[in-house]
Amino acid sequence: MGELKGCYLMPQAPILLPEIGEEQIKNVKNTFNACYEVASDVAHKVPDTIIIVTPHASLSGDTIAISIDDVLYGNFDEFGNEQIGIECKIDKVLTEKVAEYAIQNKISTIKLGKNSAKVYGVGVELDYGSMVPLYFINKKYKDYKVVNITYGLLSKLDLYKFGMIIRKAINDSPSNVVLIASGDFSHCLSDEGQYNYHEDGEKFDKKLISLLEEGNEVEIFNLDSSIIQNVSQYGLKSCYIILGAINGNDIKGKLLSYEGPFGVGYGVMKFEIENMRTNISGDVFGDVEII
Questions:
Q1: 258: β partners
Q2: Taking burial as the number of CB atoms within 10 A of a residue's CB, which of 71, 92, 147, 268 is the most buried?
Q3: At what angle do helices 156-171 and 236-245 cross, to 10 degrees?
Q4: Binning pLDDT at 50, 70 and 90, where does residue 285 land?
Q5: At 126, is the secondary structure helix, strand, or coil?
Q6: What is the pTM of this model?
Q7: Measured distance CA(273)–CA(186) in Å, rounded
């Protein structure tokens, strides 16, 4: 029986890489150091597999895409440095279980490989939402396989349910696993980035971080939808998946770093799991059945 050893929320900004950010690294020093702290923590847990979840959907619409090729590769060519590449082997057993359970539970899911990617007209390369966290992990630990998942415009209930599905698949596999969900917070902290400043940006980030630290799932799922729309964030849906994966256990996030120097909130959090209970319930949304 496999075990979920830990969950992490990490930023996905390529500027965090010294080879890309260069002199700008000094402005995100705390985030940079926190990403290395996560890498050291993962190395200490010695996982067989890292499940990496990114909001940069391979397919449009309300669909989960799960990579099924034996090996995945990506580089940072679109950010001006094709020399930095990430290559990883897929945990085929766990990947198949996640896909199987998602399909059984009526979560729209596509197993994405080279052949199916041609049909859908998309690529199969790792995207930066996966590569940025793995860049840091690889500095400390490399003896792992991956399950690579991208998600689209699914509802928060489906994303929470998908997190529960991930946990069930881990329980039914032989792998010890850590889950890393990538995503940045508000993109409206200032006019410095591509989005205009909005006063709700900082409020949203502080509120979400506080609720994650408290483990207040109910309030996270009841955040004001108008505020969410105002702040152009890309991390909340990743949080839904983490919450689903830790379902049935006390959830307390530890904030390792938060910065927003370029108008975008970069948050690094870890969720410690001690004495993980194997039961999975649907307390937040009532009865959520996982088959």
A1: 267
A2: 147
A3: 40
A4: low
A5: coil
A6: 0.92
A7: 27
